[in-house]
Automatic annotation (TrEMBL), chains A, B, C:
GO terms for molecular function: ammonium channel activity. It is a multi-pass membrane protein. Keywords: Ammonia transport, Membrane, Signal, Transmembrane, Transmembrane helix, Transport. The keyword Ribosomal protein does not apply. Residues 1-34 form the signal peptide. Belongs to the ammonia transporter channel (TC 1.A.11.2) family. It comes from Hydrotalea sandarakina. This is Ammonium transporter. PANTHER family: AMMONIUM TRANSPORTER. It is found in: Cell membrane; Membrane. NCBIfam families: amt. GO terms for cellular component: plasma membrane.
Amino acid sequence: MKKSKPSFLGKKYLYTLILLFVFTITFIPSHSFAQDPTGAKTGTLADIDTSAVKTLDTISKAKDSSTAKLAEHISQLASTVHSIGDADGHNKIAINIMWTLIAGFLVMFMQAGFAMVETGFTQKKNVAHTMLMNFLIYAIGMLGFWIVGFAIMFGGSLNPATLGGAPGVSSHEVIIHLFGKDFGIAGTAAYFLNSKVYDVGVFTLFLFQMVFMDTTATIPTGSMAERWTLKSFIVYGFFISMFVYPLYGNWVWGGGWLSALGTNFGLGHGHVDFAGSSVVHMVGGVAALAGAIVIGPRYGKYGKDGSVKTIPGHNIPMAIIGTFILAFGWFGFNPGSTLAGGDLRISIVAVNTMLASAAGAIAALFYMYIKGGKADPGMVANGMLAGLVAITAPCAFVTATSAVIIGAISGILVILVYNFVDTKLKIDDPVGAFAVHGANGAWGVLALGLFADGSYGDGWNGISGTVKGLFYGDYKQFIAQCIGTITCFVFVFVVMYVFFKLLNKVIPLRTKEADEIAGLDIPETGVLGYVD
Amino acid sequence: MKKSKPSFLGKKYLYTLILLFVFTITFIPSHSFAQDPTGAKTGTLADIDTSAVKTLDTISKAKDSSTAKLAEHISQLASTVHSIGDADGHNKIAINIMWTLIAGFLVMFMQAGFAMVETGFTQKKNVAHTMLMNFLIYAIGMLGFWIVGFAIMFGGSLNPATLGGAPGVSSHEVIIHLFGKDFGIAGTAAYFLNSKVYDVGVFTLFLFQMVFMDTTATIPTGSMAERWTLKSFIVYGFFISMFVYPLYGNWVWGGGWLSALGTNFGLGHGHVDFAGSSVVHMVGGVAALAGAIVIGPRYGKYGKDGSVKTIPGHNIPMAIIGTFILAFGWFGFNPGSTLAGGDLRISIVAVNTMLASAAGAIAALFYMYIKGGKADPGMVANGMLAGLVAITAPCAFVTATSAVIIGAISGILVILVYNFVDTKLKIDDPVGAFAVHGANGAWGVLALGLFADGSYGDGWNGISGTVKGLFYGDYKQFIAQCIGTITCFVFVFVVMYVFFKLLNKVIPLRTKEADEIAGLDIPETGVLGYVD
Amino acid sequence: MKKSKPSFLGKKYLYTLILLFVFTITFIPSHSFAQDPTGAKTGTLADIDTSAVKTLDTISKAKDSSTAKLAEHISQLASTVHSIGDADGHNKIAINIMWTLIAGFLVMFMQAGFAMVETGFTQKKNVAHTMLMNFLIYAIGMLGFWIVGFAIMFGGSLNPATLGGAPGVSSHEVIIHLFGKDFGIAGTAAYFLNSKVYDVGVFTLFLFQMVFMDTTATIPTGSMAERWTLKSFIVYGFFISMFVYPLYGNWVWGGGWLSALGTNFGLGHGHVDFAGSSVVHMVGGVAALAGAIVIGPRYGKYGKDGSVKTIPGHNIPMAIIGTFILAFGWFGFNPGSTLAGGDLRISIVAVNTMLASAAGAIAALFYMYIKGGKADPGMVANGMLAGLVAITAPCAFVTATSAVIIGAISGILVILVYNFVDTKLKIDDPVGAFAVHGANGAWGVLALGLFADGSYGDGWNGISGTVKGLFYGDYKQFIAQCIGTITCFVFVFVVMYVFFKLLNKVIPLRTKEADEIAGLDIPETGVLGYVD
């Protein structure tokens, strides 16, 4: 190698480069500091209101102290303060909108994480198919949510105060009256993000809530992987994003009846779910369970003799990196759910989120070691995801130690539920979607009803006072959590089970046996996922 | 497995762990709330100006109402308000700089997305080579832009008001006079980010614009993949980052002549391109086309009998994850182009961006189904990218519905153009770089000229009033867009075609036939991309 | 394919879709603009304090100019200004907390980058094992840091002013007295993030510092890869996160003795390390070196005849994408270390960070070309990482040109050190962890002592005046940097060497020879990383 003289770059080029640097550093004038290299002087009152600078300078140097002059100055001061206060308020809302958008971007990126986890934990012969489902759901869900989902979910409460309150926007919620109480059922505004809601606050809310919906919608692609026809999947994608997710979401977050269990029936603050253990994860996990039952197990998964075959994932690195991406995106998921960067509780939320994820992973690890097993990367990753799912509801309401306990329990729960579903119920859920999102989603909302420490949540769902769980004295909050959990399971399971059964009659859910055995990439996508 | 007693971690360890938790939660004192767990009390006037707190308290409790005292208090109030206003202005600029930087970070991450898309869609035997080009361009482009590119592009307008305006910094633009008008051609300040521009605002602008340039520079690595010598590629990298991209960029964003079509010739707001459908994507896509023509098709791509061979990508999961990363980074690309977190239009921009991406993917999917084909993941991914490219120019100026329409058209356009270039023109563009970035870049700027709804852009390019497209009554804006588009194609194609032709004489663009057939990893990088 | 009429989606579906769009855009009422599509009117004084709006309006329109009335108005103005100032201060801290959290999220994501770089650069037979170590360290380190690490490192300085200053929180540092001076050794507060530190500012600090620690802890997984038992690794993870990293970290960042070299001995500003070239990278790199020595080289790496075998990495794309993720995360690492988005120096920091990374990569590339070699992607990637490590300490204190020079030197240094360790010292460090993090960590802190230009750092470590390096006139600063560097090497090397030696007696560090040869995935994790 050394013999052939380098033809392209020789030593003289290096010397030229070095000389260039020396020249640069030597002859370019040293700092004049005419500019602002520290940034301390950048951004002043002049960036808000140049006339205010002049007014204030004039007033502070005024010599005339006649009452007429003083009155004039006071009046000028008042308008100037008003203008500064307006800029201050604009900064406040800008902080909140920036925070919510950036958090939403992180949540959107979780789609890549789901795609990697699911594809890594399934078989090589189906990678293009599994990837494509995870890819398409982002686009399908988004359009479904844009068309009608967002209108159903948030049509009744489009104007969160943290995002500016959008004064010109009218919200509308369908309400039914039962037992002398109002039960909000569904919103009916903001279809297609039409011109009546053409507002920066509403659009911010849409972006953040859209990516949440997509998380739900992508979960069943894991439990039904390796045997689901793309065409029935596409119909499913529109259905869940347009109706199922938005309805339950409306009941909890959109002003619907579960959020009113406090005001209507005195049950704590109603069903409280900070960032979606139930609204997002349990809905997705229960839909995943219904789908896995209807579509049936993969060929070869369960023997006629009752044997259970483990079908190993084809790519552990892909699944682990996917898990990291999910854990990363969760920092948008949970802390972003304040819809306000100015609500500094975000730091508590973020720390609780990561502590629970670590506790979930380590609890799963130690549990496996204690059982005499090895450190299965799949189970450790699922332990972390379980911790994240479980802390999603209570993250804003509990102490760091409680977050660790909640996470640790979820890390063991996910293994127990996975094994129960897989070997006892004999429901084939390739990536453990129900164990991770369904079971731990339920555990998360219940954990809130146990561990909420009363340090946060004053005024939540219109109830004054902070949110307290059973361990901190409010057993009624725990009851509200139970009602929310049961409602979620029953509503989602029934609707999705019926939906999948009906859909199966129109467009078969299941790919052909020969295709499934040979691999779905060519039959469903026309290309091979991996080409040598 | 169960026989061997676990030696490392037994049940007693678990019990210890549990006891530790119980101990922790029990004996550590419960919250004193002496601190601020909600964050509501964190951050007060004292964090800005401690003396102001004292002054204001004194004044509000003052008993003496002599005019002398009142005058003194008014004067003190005025200075205090000034100080608070300064802090307010600093917050405003901090919000803008944070936003621009974070958006820039997201755009930088798109380099990983490009690397994955291009490598996934090409062959296994060239992965190290394709990856390396995508990696090196980040570094090469950055240094080229630092040396002279930024100076040419923004030397004439270094001080955006949203980033503080950098009062000590002098901008300079080379202007030529024709037909009694001024035509800005190129900036000439800020070479090497030297000490004259050592300013926080200028550096913020540099970071954001640098990552944009790198997006352009990386696009031709897709169209010329699998046959390009690294050494000629390195020269290309410096050339496009130092001269070609910055020049066109100057004309549109740096105060150059295309941005002055409005002030000079009454054509709407001049050529308007919010985030770079033309400046970034079309420049890259047209350069990619010129390069693909000069370097010629891969061996075996086109048969002597006129047959066209499809060379499948080797790794669909890699390409799909890369697409997700690009879609994620685009949330920096478009919303960041306000250069201001305080410009709350960012939420409209972000929502339009994602809606167009979804519409592009779904339109491509449905188009393939209608044509009787299957859901090719490559085309669906390109549909999403096409939607993103097309919405990049108009994202800030159109409604959500228009964004969906623009995206849907781009999803079909990308397939038509790809097939036309591939089978009619017989130009071998392995990843469809021209179809995605070139054709849809053009469509994006033209779409702005059609769909801009007049709700935003007051004062853009020095023209008062908002930006309106043909459908909303301003046909002159559409003419300006056409001029910008044609200029982009002609300028970039001619310069890059000539450049590649000349470069080819000095350093051959094309790798040796034998190397290309065997794979470029060993000949070009010395290592194999994948080792078993 | 074309023969079979598409059963699912036909042309009529497309027409329906098009009609739907036309309907949408035509019949939905055009903008009323009752809302705020530009966002310019969103966020006003009313979002802060509705009564202030009324007060100010009343005052500015007042007719009564009696001194009593004027005095009343002045008093009201003073309280209103106070309230606006409080909101302003809250915005300021919110900006800082948001910035620090988002930066921390980016740093957390670096874990995925490390996992990919290390796994990509090692062998296919160990991928599940290498991935799992990188995954587990995130969780293990986090719990260790939560239990005691954070308390040791920051227990003595829990209240950074930029994060609100947490007035109710008491810090405590263990101090020893020597030569009539105080030497801070370790903090002793905030174990388990207990209720005494239940504060939004403290939790923000914890999150940011936790992810920094995890970076350190993950570095030795690279040097000890492909032969390390998981069980000893787990013990290591707790040890370094609980004790070693926090102690050195306390000395530099937590108010400990190295930070007091300025106040105690007049050595500049004491040991200055902006974002952790020494605290994070050198600690990790030196621990990696100690571990690599104790664990010994991989079987087959060094022949008995003195030959050195190159064991190529199995997946270059994985390693390159990992490098991009690291470079992306570094934008959190360095700019986030202001702990303040309102410290606008963040833009200088970010630009310096990326310029050094580019210079490192390009210097490595040109060095290899000059030596007559090829563009080894591994070395180019390590060149970029070396540039990032080296600029981490000086990023806030140097000019852009100095950043390029520092980066360029590091890009060559990493190759020289890697070769020296690999072929002269015959220490087997599979991914060059010491060369990248150890050697360049040292170079980074020394470079600060040379290139700091005196434009920033007024008051750093309690010393008034800015930070200046040797080239700018302060040789004592360089001495302080040398002391910090030597301390880091000696302390970490000795402690970790002894620790690994002792640990090896309790739980063998090294996997069995047969397992190492066959691959560690099954023996250590129970599953194969890749399944065909």
